[in-house]
Amino acid sequence: MVGRHHRSPAPRHAVSHTVRHTASHTARRALAPLAAASVAVLAAAPLASAAPAAPAAPQQPADQPPCSDAADVCVDLGEQRAWLTDDGRATSGPMAITSGSDEDPTPTGEFTVQRKERHHVSREFGRAPMPYSVFFDDEGRALHSGSRAGSSHGCVRLDKDDAQDVFAALEPGDRVEIVR
């Protein structure tokens, strides 16, 4: 094959350079409209005013109890949560609770711990166990351990560990606040 010129294949690095160059060129062409649009949006955007922004109103932290500083335990019926508190700050919680039904609601207001019974059994509701009961009103309502699957008859039901903590922390005369 004299006189015929055979072209040898391009070296491997040259092929990849060509592919890279073509891909880069294609990408730049595809992104050009986006760059132009970005510039147009920035040019049309109003400039920020020179006046300083007003400070945001302080918000209550999500886990901050909504009761007064005098409460020793705070119960929020709307959120179905409770906290042990000291000077308005949570020392334990939030704890999940179950409260009374529409027909037999848990009362709201300020109450005082009247007595505590570790192994109380309800005489009114079929000898239902109410372990770790902390009674807070004259109607026999208490914070106590029990199933949170359904509504109570006006009591505040807590999981067992939380009820034990509440029982250990509160004494007769301590303040219970229940809000909605």
UniProtKB/TrEMBL annotation:
Top-level taxon of the source organism: Bacteria
SUPFAM superfamilies assigned: L,D-transpeptidase catalytic domain-like (SSF141523)
Residue ranges annotated for the L,D-TPase catalytic domain, each copy included: 71-179
Active site, per annotation: H144, C155
Protein's pathway: Cell wall biogenesis; peptidoglycan biosynthesis
Region annotated Disordered, chain positions: 1-25, 86-110
Signal sequence, start to end: 1-50
CDD domains linked to this entry: YkuD_like (cd16913)
Keywords, sorted A to Z: Cell shape, Cell wall biogenesis/degradation, Peptidoglycan synthesis, Signal, Transferase
Protein name, per record: L,D-TPase catalytic domain-containing protein
Protein source organism: Actinomycetospora straminea
